[in-house]
């Protein structure tokens, strides 16, 4: 039998997915029409941040924001600032791996084990990269290691791209989720794949991230029960006494009013700082707010300033 080329392998992969029971049984995705009032709120928050941090040389192409109003869960509306732009999302990408793991579990493509549950918890609650590597290996049937031959690395990369393809089938755009997060850099076949196929890291948009989080919040991500499991891992303790200024609860949490509730996945690198949040306010407002920044990782107050402006607007809204 001749070796598989890339196109043949892709066709076989999709044939396999089509035959797996349960694939495609996910609830209908939410639609997010643009809302002029929300757009005005987002534009005002973005301009406030740009003005406040002008001395630190914050410019528009270093900021992206998406806001979704979930007060009517069946009819959410959206406003965004550069929400369609792909940005390296630090550990926010782990939301994609979390959702894919629950889809694979639902379809019987993963076995539900205590070790997998431990890895999912550590990936989201503690933002562990080691746990994320374990989850990605299970999702894609790949491992890190030395460089591979040309034919082997093509097959490896097709397998590694399973999560990216999954989100494409759901109509997501701007999602690249096929790389392990790292601290010091990729080595071996991880570096080889980037060099040969995609000279980018994982990429997301705030629009795509907000859609995913809104689907988790409204019970439409995989199933209602699995959405609830995912939300549990994202719950943040706003009364935390952890002294770490980069505790995930402290990205947006400090600006929330008493009685608010927060679910989030936050992350940062030497160049980026992001927070993807679902917030319930004491006045009954429910919102998803995703803020990505680049080139200003040490400016923790940018995200908080944007969040404060949005929350004040949502609190005042009737």
Structure at a glance:
The chain has 318 residues and is α+β, with helices and mostly antiparallel strands. It has 2 domains: 30-82 and 206-318, Beta-Lactamase (2-Layer Sandwich); 90-203, no CATH class. The protein is built from 11 helices and 6 strands.
What does this structure look like?
The protein is α+β, with helices and mostly antiparallel strands. Helices cover 42% and strands 13% of the residues. The protein folds into 2 domains: 30-82 and 206-318, Beta-Lactamase (2-Layer Sandwich); 90-203, no CATH class. It contains 11 helices and 6 strands. A hairpin with a 3-residue loop joins strand 4 and strand 5. It is globular. The protein starts with 5 loop residues before the first helix and ends with a helix.
Please identify the top-level CATH class of the largest domain: Alpha Beta
Structural class: alpha+beta
Low-confidence stretches: 6-23
Main-sheet strand order equals 2-1-6-5-4-3
Quickly count the domains: 2
Q: For the terminal residues, how far apart are their CA atoms?
A: 67 Å
- One letter per element, helices H and strands E, the order comes to HHEEHHHHHHHHEEEEH
What is the second-level CATH architecture of the largest domain? 2-Layer Sandwich
Largest sheet: 6 strands, antiparallel
């Amino acid at each position: 039998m001749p070796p598989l080329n890339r196109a043949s392998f892709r066709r076989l992969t999709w044939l396999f997915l089509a035959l797996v029971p349960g694939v495609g049984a996910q609830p209908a995705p939410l639609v997010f029409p643009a809302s002029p009032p929300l757009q005005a709120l987002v534009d005002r928050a973005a301009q406030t941040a740009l003005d406040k941090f002008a001395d630190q040389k914050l410019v528009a192409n270093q900021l992206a924001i998406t806001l979704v109003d979930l007060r009517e869960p069946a009819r959410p509306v959206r406003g965004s600032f550069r929400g369609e732009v792909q940005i390296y999302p630090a550990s926010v990408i782990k939301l994609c791996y979390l959702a894919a793991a629950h889809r694979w579990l639902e379809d019987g493509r993963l076995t539900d084990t205590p070790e997998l549950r431990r890895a999912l918890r550590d990936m989201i609650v503690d933002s562990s990269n080691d746990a994320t590597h374990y989850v990605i290996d299970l999702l894609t049937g790949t491992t890190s290691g030395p460089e591979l031959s040309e034919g082997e690395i093509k097959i490896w990369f097709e397998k590694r791209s399973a999560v990216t393809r999954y989100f494409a089938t759901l109509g997501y755009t701007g999602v690249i989720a096929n790389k392990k997060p790292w601290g010091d850099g990729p080595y071996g076949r991880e570096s080889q794949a980037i060099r040969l196929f995609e000279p980018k890291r994982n990429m997301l948009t705030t629009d795509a991230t907000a859609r995913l989080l809104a689907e988790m919040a409204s019970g439409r991500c995989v199933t209602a029960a699995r959405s609830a499991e995912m939300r549990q891992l994202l719950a943040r303790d706003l009364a935390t006494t952890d002294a770490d200024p980069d505790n995930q609860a402290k990205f947006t949490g400090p600006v929330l009013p008493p009685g608010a509730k927060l679910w989030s996945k936050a992350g940062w690198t030497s160049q980026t700082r992001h927070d993807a949040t679902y917030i319930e306010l004491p006045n009954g407002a429910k919102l998803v707010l995703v803020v990505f920044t680049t080139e200003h990782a040490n400016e923790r107050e940018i995200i908080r300033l944007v969040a404060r402006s949005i929350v004040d607007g949502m609190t005042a809204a009737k």
